[in-house]
């Protein structure tokens, strides 16, 4: 995962920066929870330097959006309370393959804009990149006052090992993710991997977050108990169908398809709550569900199905391309997404994109 997963970099047509309106809408919808958590933390004594981290920052307009929000909320609140405003130290984390160059090239313009919007008393704001997996330690002990992550924690640290066992792998026939036809053992292996990863994530952050520090985490999830429901699986089923068609056309070997599984999981709120309680370092302050229509990939504009399918294909490609390329090769990408668009456009089903936003407080 660490070597292979990266969103499409740069700012071209296929880039994540240009195809992340859905994630940006989700981010805006999580703002009330984020704002509350930041304002609550302003009630206590703020340190002279507030240290925050955005985990899975990627590159593009969403990268600085949250940092702008958090720092502006704190600055404005301090001005209202007649307190001196803190300095800010911001760590932007992602996997090493992330396009950090694009992020840092846009930094001076962004810092100027923040000063302009907030006034000359704002800052300073020190920004550093931290390449590495959030399933490992990233920061020194008790240094973080605020942790944010959006649209990232649904990525697992690895494909469940039962599915990649060389001697006797579990086979998820014709599929690339959990589906209605998946054997129960496949579904269990995904849940087990998610539990392990989420619990490890909490433990690692519990070491890095200062007492009473906050985390606001938004990630894809589900509201139905059944992990094979369309809510979680429909788009992956369209993709699986597109791959099957490429197998039928001789463009992809059947064995290649059978050995590809997406390291991704959409948890149910109860699965999240159970892991937070079991790990024990954080109090769950809020858990909210964000449900967005598929039009969110069109910026909320209701379009015809074929147009939405095209936008959805670009959004999915910007996120998954690196992994598909690594397993299946470059040549299948265009035919795969062409077929995906046809399959989605020809269907009439529609489900909502569900995300969960959780606000956590580090116990003292
Ligand atoms: C869909 S993007 C979300 C980007 C941005 N936060 C947003 O809301 O638009 C998910 C990001 O999570 C990163 N990611 C996935 N697994 C990660 C891990 N284990 N450690 C650090 N970053 C990870 C990916 O590389 C990717 O840039």
Automatic annotation (TrEMBL):
InterPro entries on file: MeTrfase_7, MeTrfase_capping, SAM-dependent_MTases_sf
Pfam families: Methyltransf_7
Entry's transmembrane regions: none
Annotated GO MF terms: metal ion binding; methyltransferase activity
Taxonomic superkingdom: Eukaryota
Keywords from the named record: Magnesium, Metal-binding, Methyltransferase, Transferase
Biological process per Gene Ontology, one example term: methylation
Record carries keyword Hydrolase: no
Protein name: Jasmonate O-methyltransferase
The organism of origin for this protein: Theobroma cacao
Gene: LOC18610736
């Amino acid at each position: 995962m660490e070597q292979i997963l990266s969103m499409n970099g740069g700012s071209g047509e296929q880039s994540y920066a240009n195809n992340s309106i859905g994630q940006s809408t989700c981010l805006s919808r999580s703002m009330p929870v984020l704002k509350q958590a930041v304002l609550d933390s302003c009630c206590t004594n703020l340190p002279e330097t507030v240290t925050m981290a955005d985990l899975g920052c990627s590159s593009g307009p969403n990268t600085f959006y949250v940092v702008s929000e958090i720092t502006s909320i704190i600055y404005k609140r301090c001005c209202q309370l007649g307190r001196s405003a803190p300095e800010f130290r911001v760590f932007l984390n992602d996997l090493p393959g992330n396009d950090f160059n694009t992020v840092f090239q846009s930094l001076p313009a962004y810092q100027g804009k923040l000063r302009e919007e907030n006034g000359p008393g704002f800052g300073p704001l020190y920004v550093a990149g931290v390449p590495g997996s959030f399933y490992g330690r990233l920061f020194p002990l008790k240094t973080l006052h605020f942790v944010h992550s959006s649209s990232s924690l649904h990525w697992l640290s690895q494909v469940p090992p039962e599915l990649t066992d060389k001697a006797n792998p579990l086979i998820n026939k014709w599929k690339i993710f959990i589906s209605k036809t998946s054997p129960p053992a496949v579904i269990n292996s995904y849940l087990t991997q998610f539990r392990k990863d989420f619990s490890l994530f909490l433990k690692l952050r519990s070491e890095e977050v200062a007492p009473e520090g906050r985390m606001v985490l938004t990630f894809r999830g589900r509201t139905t108990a059944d992990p094979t429901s369309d809510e979680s699986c429909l788009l992956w089923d369209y993709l699986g169908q597109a791959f099957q068609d490429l197998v039928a056309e001789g463009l992809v070997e059947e064995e290649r398809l059978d050995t590809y599984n997406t390291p991704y999981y959409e948890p149910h709120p109860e699965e999240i709550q159970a892991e937070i309680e079991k790990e024990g370092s954080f109090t769950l302050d809020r858990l909210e569900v964000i449900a967005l229509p598929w039009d969110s990939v069109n910026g909320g504009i209701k379009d015809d199905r074929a147009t939405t399918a095209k936008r959805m294909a670009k959004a999915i490609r910007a996120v998954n391309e690196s992994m598909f390329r690594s397993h299946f090769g470059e040549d299948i990408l265009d035919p795969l997404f062409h077929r995906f668009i046809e399959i989605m456009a020809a269907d009439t089903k529609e489900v909502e994109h569900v995300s969960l936003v959780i606000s956590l407080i580090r116990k003292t």
